[in-house]
C-alpha cells in the first residue's frame, strides 16, 4: 500500500507539472480500501514554469494558471501585442501600444515601416499612448507597401518593425519586433437607404418659374414730368435741373410690388462699378445737396427725384445708375426710407429684389471757340482742359435709356 501511494503521488505531480490530461482530480482504489482513496487538486506548482509571456504575472485560479498581462500585451498567456488598425477610405493607420516598446527596450527612433525612411510617431488615443504609422494613397509606394488585387478585392500591406541597435560590440541583446498589417477593400459592396420607403397613391406636381419685371429710368425737363427729353439727343445746360423718373413697367405688375431707391450715382463710363463716381443718393437718402425727392418713394411703383446737372473733369460723358429695391405691399418692414437718415441695422427681407438701373451716356460737347475774345494761348489751354462750368450756352446730352429686368418668382402648383 505504501508503494502504491508513492506511485500515485509521483504520477499526480507529473501530471500537474505539465503532462497531458485535463483531469483535476485523480482517484485510484486498486489494492486499497475505499477509505484510503486519494483526492489530489492542483497546487501553485502549475505556475512554476510561468506560462505567461512578456513578464506576465501567473496565478492559479480554480484549477488552472491565469495570466495578468503587462500593459501593451494581451491573450491567455500574454502572447499578443495590443494593436489598433484602422482601414479608412482615405488612409490606413496602424498603432502599437507604447509600453510594448518600453518593455522590449526598443527606442522609437529605431521603429519604422518597411522603408526605413518612414518612421512612426507617438499618438494619444482614449488616454493611451501608441506608436503609430499612417499611410495614404500618396505614401503607400514610398513606404514600401505591397499592393495586391484580384477580381474582387485589393489589399495594402506593410509592417512596423524595429532594427537592431548597433553598439559596435560582438554581441547584442536588443530585441526586434515585427507587426505585419493589411487593409483589404472589396470592389463591390451593398448599399442601402437609411430610411424606409412609403408608397404614395396620389400625384402632386409643383412648377416654379421666374417672372420678369422691368424697371425703366427716364429724364424730364420739368417737375410736371410732361416733357421728356427726346432720344437720341437732348439739350440741358450745366446749371439746369434734371428730373428723373424710375418706374415699374407693366400694368399687371403694379399690384405685386412697391419700389424704393437705395442708391443712385454717376460714372464717366457705362460701368456702374467704376471707381470714379459721384454719389447722388446713398442708402435711400440724398447725398448730393442738389438732390430733391418729388414723391413719397417706397409707397408706389414710381420714384421721382431731381438734381442739378454736372460734368466729370476730364471726361466727356456722364452715366447715371440707380439701385432699386422692389418690396411687397403690406410688408412688416416699410419700403420707404425716412430722411434725414435714421440708421437702423435691419437685414433686408428675403423676398426683396435689388437691381441696378442705368441711364446714359450723357455727352458733354467741347467748349465753343473764343478766338475773338482771347489769345491763342488761352484757346490752346481750354482745348486741353475740356469744357468749363462757367461757359454759357446749351450742352447737348445724348441719353440712352437703360432698362433692367428684375426677377421675381412665380409659382404654379399642380392640383390633385
TrEMBL record:
The keyword S-adenosyl-L-methionine does not apply. Disulfide bonds join 69-78. Residues 43-79 form the EGF-like domain. Residues 86-342 form the ZP domain. The chain crosses the membrane at residues 390-413. The keyword Transcription does not apply. Keywords: Disulfide bond, EGF-like domain, Membrane, Signal, Transmembrane, Transmembrane helix. Residues 1-19 form the signal peptide. It comes from the Eukaryota. This is GP2 protein.
